[in-house]
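Morning!

As promised:
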Amino acid sequence: MVNKKSKHEINDIDVAERKYLKSSSYKLTKIIVLIFSISFFIVINLILNNKKLSKFLFFNRSFNENKDERVLGHYPYKEISNDDLIEIEANILVHKDMYKPLLKMKVDAEKEGIYLVFLSGYRSIKLQKQIFYSLKSIRNQIATERARVSAPPGYSEHSTGFAIDIGDANQRETDFEESFENTNAFKWLKRNAAKYHFKLSFDREQTSVDYEPWHWRYEGSIEALKIFESSNRKSF
Ligand SMILES: [Zn+2]
């Protein structure tokens, strides 16, 4: 009996409290929420209708968040540690992970009468700085023009050790020239480089940088794939 009574009392209190809320505070809260919701929609609509304001508040921010880190069309790359470099031939250093595939590619090409010549492998950021700024002034070019054919320091694939410039030993006049694409070496590379995990970095499809048929990068290791992930992800 005592239990029943106490239960009954509790129920009474619950009902009484609910009635109290509904009668005053509850109604007031409802009104406040309604006013806030209406005001919120009005403000959002005003902002969205105001192109300048919405661009400033929303689009600029999302644009900046999605904006890639490229400078003049080039992605930033860290300099590889000396411990990871290996000399493939005189003055040509490459990442130790790509040493064997690169050499194998050269040997296999030779078996088919194609003679690849390595023009440039690893380049330090310091050397890239000299190349970029000296060539820029020698050729009387502004940075934007120069960047189409040479990466600014800190933005070259060559500083990763995973990039290699290749020429045709029988047509050295095409070294670093677009005409390299007409050589047997280039035609062989187009057909076979992927087997050795090499990819043309600046093909004709992208428009940020000038076409470089001689410049290949290695993507046969997780480390290399991580380094070039941004470049592979972005559409040009
Ligand atoms: Zn290159």
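Confidence is low (pLDDT under 50) at residues 61-66.

Hope this helps with the figure draft.
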